[in-house]
Amino acid sequence: MTNQDELEDSLDRLQTDWTDVWNKVWATFEPKKSWLTDLDKRDRIKEKLSHFNPSHSKEPKHIDKVIKALTRGNGLVDAAVGWKNPAINKPKARANLEKIRGIQWRLVILYSGFEIMAKALSNEFERNISHNMYDDFIGKCFLSDYQPIAPLTNNPELKKWLDKEDEALMEFLGITGGDRRILNSWLVNSQAIYSWEDSFKLAKALRNASAHGFLSPTKIDELKIKDSFRRLTLDLGTILVAALSKIV
To answer: What is the rounded CA–CA span in Å between residue 26 and residue 20?
Structure first.
């Protein structure tokens, strides 16, 4: 079995795990809107949410806001983990690039759901979140030891990565700061990804590079990082399964 097949099998299992944990979470919430009038239920929900941030309120509006955010996030995550053999067709696109585009945007979709749910659980609804919010959130999921993502080596295309033209384009598209550092570390300096926190940072950087139009399917193919998109999709989903298991 190839690494690609193993990753897809793991993503299949992730879909099952996600469905199971979301159903358990919803079982603590239902029936719909009951939390608006049931004080005991709000107390129980607040207690569970306090695992991630004790500042969560038991006021009906707050609990309602958190549940609505989790539900929106679930819609995105469920769509991503349930997307079998992802591909996005474009006129005159090669079949291989159609598949890469699908794998790329599956990560983009899942990242969006991850962001919504992590912020809701962490009680970070403002635009400017706490500096270490995502690291703190991941730490409270109590995940197993991380299996590193190996650095990319012996690829001549990597030598061209972030040449002066690409650097200027990244700057123009707003791909700077932490995103740029993790991309340089992994792609250019051949540093492995050793933690769940850094896996999230790499997923965020690749998501932003994809969504902002910097990273095309052709470039992904040239850099041979298609399986990395699969792995990062799996990593984000695994973090969220662990997170939701803390509130059931």
So the answer is: 10
